[in-house]
Amino acid sequence: MPLLYPKVKPSPLQKANLCSRVFFWWLNPLFKIGHKRRLKVDDMYSVLPEDRSQSLGEELQGYWDQEVERAQKDAQEPSLMKAIIKCYWKSYLALGMLTFLEEGTRVVQPILLGKIVSYVENYHLAGSATLHEAYGYVAGLSACVLMWAILHHLYFFHIQRVGMRLRVAVCHMIYHKTLRLSSSAMGKTTTGQIVNLLSNNVNKFDQVTMFLHYLWVGPLQAIAVTALLWMEIGISCLAGMAVLIILMLLQSSFGMLFSSLRSKTAALTDDRIRTMSEVITGIRTIKMCAWEDSLEDLIFNMRKKELYKILRSSCLQGMNLASFFAVSKIMIFVTFLTNVLLDNVITASQVFVVVTLFEALRFASTLYFPMAVEKVADAFVSIQRIKNFLLLDEIPQLLPQLPSDGKTIVNLQDFTAFWNKASETPTLQGLSFTVRPGELLAVVGPVGAGKSSLLSAVLGELPPSQGKLNVHGRIAYVSQQPWVFSGTVRSNILFGKKYEKERYEEVIRACSLEEDLQLLKDGDLTEIGDGGTPLSGGQKARVSLARAVYQDADIYLLDDPLSAVDTGVSRHLFKQCICQALHEKITILVTHQLQYLKETSQILILKDGRIMQKGTYAKFPKSGVDFEDILLKKENEEAESSPDAAHEDEETENIQVAQSQERPLKRKIGFETYKDYFTDETHWSVIIFLSLVNIAAQVAYVLQDWWLAFWANEQSALHDTLFGKGSIIVTFDPDWYFIVYSVLTVGTILFGILRSLLMFYVLLKSSKTVHEDMVMTILRVPVSFFDRNPIGRILNRFSNDTGYMDDLLPQIFQEFIQAFLLVISVVGVMVAVIPWILIPLIPLGIVFYVLWQYFSETSRDVKHLECATQSPVFSHLASSLQGLWTIRAYKAEQKFQKLFDAHQDLHSEAWFLLLTTSQWLALYLDITCAIFVTVVAFVSLILAENLDAGRVGLVLSLTLTLMGMLQCCIRQSVEAENMMVSVQRVIEYRDLREEGSWMFNRQAPPLWPSKGEIRFDGVSFRPISDSRLVLKDLTTVIESGEKVGIVGRTGAGKSSLIAALFRFSKPAGNIHIDEILTTQLGVKDLRMNISTIPQEPFLFSGAMRKNLDPFNVHKDEELWDALEEVQLKKAIEDLPGKMDSELAESGLNLSVGQRQLVCLARAILKKSQILIIDKATSNVDPRTEELIQKKIREKFAAALC
């Protein structure tokens, strides 16, 4: 397979010098491009060699394999946590030193601030030596602030990169495991669960790595601050620190609860994504049966349960954010309360040293520490879920497939096997046969006899419980439901083999694909999308067969490849392909085409997993053979069949539906998107109330600082009045000042908690509404939408984007609003206290705005690219799961692993740019802030004569607060906008054009259609708006009770006729059913009154009862009667749960024939006067086909298509 994403643009980081790496100068060319135009995939830099998915995954896989081996020796359960620690502990520990130094510089800042305030406080006593000393303190403060900015962003860049590497490595391992899952393990997991692991669970690694170090840095910083406070104010500091300790213990208990909630939430998310995956896969069946309402209710109930758990965990997140907002004020309050009660004396400089030291704890101990507890709990749940997946059973070690050396053979001796080990009845029992080169073994039998299971056993997918299996030779496999992957027709046939023109053309001829390729727009270079669009069912079957033939294997396992094609093509494939092209090979053919049995070397008749008869056609006894009558009947039919039979009955038409690239969204997220998201379900009054609560919380917060400065200045003025000079504050009438201070503190706490909880509630309610709207729209968009968009792209909205809306968006919005209001209030207080500070503030604001504008253009593009490049990862996973047996049969696991790694590397390119561009902005914002702090500090010294200590202390402490908060505010605004890209993507799907009115005012009459007469009057039809007309001026009448067969060549319009009847696209002309014009009815009324049995039977995971009766309108007796009618009653009664037995995803624990019978039972229950059958007997044996036809004649007296 060719390199998927050839890259010619190496990352400039590889050759960047030290300064360029520290200050991110290597990103400047990208920002220039982003400023001029929209970024494209080609603008991204190649992923760095050390960040490639393959190398990272193989490294971690090695540690995991060692851990599994160790655990087996010690009879313990392996720990994925230990494997991760062994792989990453060295690099991660080294980065811990950076954060230790960073937080060390933060602790030093309050001491230097205290020295500066002390100088202003004692300005009238200061000499020139003291002034020089003060300038030294200011220079030290400036150096500390600048060093903190550089260390902080250097740390976050490298630590996020570690998180990215860990996530990529675990994704590689998950896909690696997926390719090796046994069939029993596949029953324990679903596509939805694996997609959830790859989208939501692994994202926790990006988050936990950022904050994990603060679990030890936070307490260490708290100890250092306690020591400094003790030196400043003595024992009073312990009261404030006690608050911090209690809070940390409380947050730790929150973490335990958070872990439990996350575990339950993840299981509910798995179910929802699994259901959506099945909905997308079976959308045609859903639309034909008009199940949209039932599925909406099912998904909404799942979502309701999921959101209930998310809301509870969000409350804990809200409490953590509220504690970050208020805890420093509580600590200051408790400390000064204790100080007052102990009658201690405190100077003005000490007041602001205490305040600033507590503020220094604000991030590490009161934000990052609880975040670390929360993220560790999250990561623990994710690691446990991923570990459980990695410990699922793998396929047993396959027997060596020896090169072709004349000794190739397939030999089974007394072979017995169980799909379900708990079952008492074996799937295959006592099978013995041998097939040698040049022999063709035909396997026949009724539905559920074990024919496909026999091929699974030869493949190694079904391990033996007893007996022997010898398979020598390379295997090629053609599955019963043909599988193709996204790519060209040619790449599907070559499947990684070198293109040899002569051999390739021979294979095309043998598989009767020449004419079909000529009909396709680009021939064999036509792109195939998910599900094989634009190929028909028969074409997919022949492409799958051509893939097998081109491999030139030794052993061919063909699972009923002739059922999807008509008699003429079937005869061509059997003669030219199976008998001629494969005449020297070992061929095992499962078939229901009994007319070919006389040309086979051996015949194996299976029933209930046992061999009923075995031998050659010529030696078969004429009596006692289970299929004798049907064999004779089929021979006669074959003799009478016309050699000029229709080319084949195709499932869909040859419509050129291009596999579209993901349409880029608007570059800038407009006000309408925010308005839609916030007010879709929430009334404006709630939004206004939330705004007022936010403002009230911030006013109370800022007034605390102002009141403290006012208190200090009033007492200083009183002291100067009483004693003329000095620096000791005389406490006077403390009750008045303390009561006001207490009220402000309580207000800060209450309003802070209320706004956090309210914000999370409002945003989760919005997420619920937008998700529900998207589900309703997706269920009602035209079928062509699913042909144009791969399953991974659609699932990405329901997994990754919805996960962002649920988890990250509320938190980031809350952090942004807190930071924004804090910045506004801090700036307001600073200007009110010292008006001249506006002079440096104005250029600071201008610089910030310019940086933000310059950055946001590129940032939005990178976020769009990041979202878009993740979709192919999910699509590739879903496709691989569908074709797992084929991939393993061809030994193509390594090729598909490389494709997955290529998709991952492309996503890593976007992700790496996302985190580096964010750090670029944050770094330059903080450097600008550091310059601002320096200017304010030096000017304060120059104007010390005209300023009092309280004002200088307040402004400098607020400036240091502003240092972190201003860049935090800007960065969180960008992050919020980036998260809103997910909202924009979901809203894009919510606003898709629906296929037609779901319900009209005019409803179908009761018992309509009573006769079942269909009249086509000048009907022209194109499946999608920009395609050619397939039906042209069709006029015909199908009378009530008629049995009508529709035949025709590929592209004749057979499936389009059915699509027009079901109104998958609005036809021109008129279609009347019982004299009612179908376009005057809603699509629900129309489709609910027509029964259908599709060619590709589709079932949902869940109870058999739910698959038969999704609306719960039938009694149990009716369900059992319907199953008895289709000869499935015994098979269902043998299941452990009978009617409530859980079906695997897509009904995979039933054979294809059994699934078709379930669809027939469903149609019988519907009791419609019109039944549409789309080759529904293609995968059943002749006897079952005769049964189906008999039941149809008995149960349906209406028109049949």
TrEMBL record:
<keyword id="KW-1133">Transmembrane helix</keyword>
<protein>
    <recommendedName>
        <fullName>Cystic fibrosis transmembrane conductance regulator</fullName>
        <ecNumber>5.6.1.6</ecNumber>
        <ecNumber>7.6.2.2</ecNumber>
        <ecNumber>7.6.2.3</ecNumber>
    </recommendedName>
</protein>
<dbReference type="GO" id="GO:0005789">
    <property type="term" value="C:endoplasmic reticulum membrane"/>
</dbReference>
<dbReference type="GO" id="GO:0008559">
    <property type="term" value="F:ABC-type xenobiotic transporter activity"/>
</dbReference>
<dbReference type="InterPro" id="IPR030240">
    <property type="entry name" value="ABCC4_TMD1"/>
</dbReference>
<dbReference type="InterPro" id="IPR011527">
    <property type="entry name" value="ABC1_TM_dom"/>
</dbReference>
<feature type="transmembrane region" description="Helical">
    <location>
        <begin position="684"/>
        <end position="703"/>
    </location>
</feature>
<keyword id="KW-0472">Membrane</keyword>
<feature type="transmembrane region" description="Helical">
    <location>
        <begin position="237"/>
        <end position="258"/>
    </location>
</feature>
<keyword id="KW-0325">Glycoprotein</keyword>
<feature type="transmembrane region" description="Helical">
    <location>
        <begin position="921"/>
        <end position="942"/>
    </location>
</feature>
<feature type="compositionally biased region" description="Acidic residues">
    <location>
        <begin position="638"/>
        <end position="653"/>
    </location>
</feature>
<dbReference type="GO" id="GO:0005524">
    <property type="term" value="F:ATP binding"/>
</dbReference>
<dbReference type="InterPro" id="IPR027417">
    <property type="entry name" value="P-loop_NTPase"/>
</dbReference>
<keyword id="KW-0597">Phosphoprotein</keyword>
<dbReference type="InterPro" id="IPR009147">
    <property type="entry name" value="CFTR/ABCC7"/>
</dbReference>
<dbReference type="GO" id="GO:0031901">
    <property type="term" value="C:early endosome membrane"/>
</dbReference>
<feature type="transmembrane region" description="Helical">
    <location>
        <begin position="736"/>
        <end position="764"/>
    </location>
</feature>
<keyword id="KW-0256">Endoplasmic reticulum</keyword>
<feature type="domain" description="ABC transporter">
    <location>
        <begin position="1014"/>
        <end position="1200"/>
    </location>
</feature>
<dbReference type="GO" id="GO:0005260">
    <property type="term" value="F:intracellularly ATP-gated chloride channel activity"/>
</dbReference>
<keyword id="KW-0832">Ubl conjugation</keyword>
<dbReference type="GO" id="GO:0015431">
    <property type="term" value="F:ABC-type glutathione S-conjugate transporter activity"/>
</dbReference>
<keyword id="KW-0869">Chloride channel</keyword>
<keyword id="KW-0067">ATP-binding</keyword>
<feature type="transmembrane region" description="Helical">
    <location>
        <begin position="211"/>
        <end position="231"/>
    </location>
</feature>
<dbReference type="GO" id="GO:0055038">
    <property type="term" value="C:recycling endosome membrane"/>
</dbReference>
<feature type="transmembrane region" description="Helical">
    <location>
        <begin position="321"/>
        <end position="342"/>
    </location>
</feature>
<dbReference type="GO" id="GO:0016887">
    <property type="term" value="F:ATP hydrolysis activity"/>
</dbReference>
<keyword id="KW-0445">Lipid transport</keyword>
<comment type="subunit">
    <text>Interacts (via PDZ-binding motif) with SNX27 (via PDZ domain); this interaction accelerates MRP4 internalization.</text>
</comment>
<dbReference type="Pfam" id="PF00005">
    <property type="entry name" value="ABC_tran"/>
</dbReference>
<dbReference type="GO" id="GO:0034707">
    <property type="term" value="C:chloride channel complex"/>
</dbReference>
<dbReference type="InterPro" id="IPR050173">
    <property type="entry name" value="ABC_transporter_C-like"/>
</dbReference>
<keyword id="KW-1003">Cell membrane</keyword>
<comment type="subunit">
    <text>Monomer; does not require oligomerization for channel activity. May form oligomers in the membrane. Interacts with SLC26A3, SLC26A6 and NHERF1. Interacts with SHANK2. Interacts with MYO6. Interacts (via C-terminus) with GOPC (via PDZ domain); this promotes CFTR internalization and thereby decreases channel activity. Interacts with SLC4A7 through NHERF1. Found in a complex with MYO5B and RAB11A. Interacts with ANO1. Interacts with SLC26A8. Interacts with AHCYL1; the interaction increases CFTR activity. Interacts with CSE1L.</text>
</comment>
<feature type="transmembrane region" description="Helical">
    <location>
        <begin position="348"/>
        <end position="369"/>
    </location>
</feature>
<feature type="domain" description="ABC transmembrane type-1">
    <location>
        <begin position="93"/>
        <end position="358"/>
    </location>
</feature>
<dbReference type="Pfam" id="PF00664">
    <property type="entry name" value="ABC_membrane"/>
</dbReference>
<keyword id="KW-0407">Ion channel</keyword>
<feature type="domain" description="ABC transmembrane type-1">
    <location>
        <begin position="688"/>
        <end position="967"/>
    </location>
</feature>
<dbReference type="InterPro" id="IPR036640">
    <property type="entry name" value="ABC1_TM_sf"/>
</dbReference>
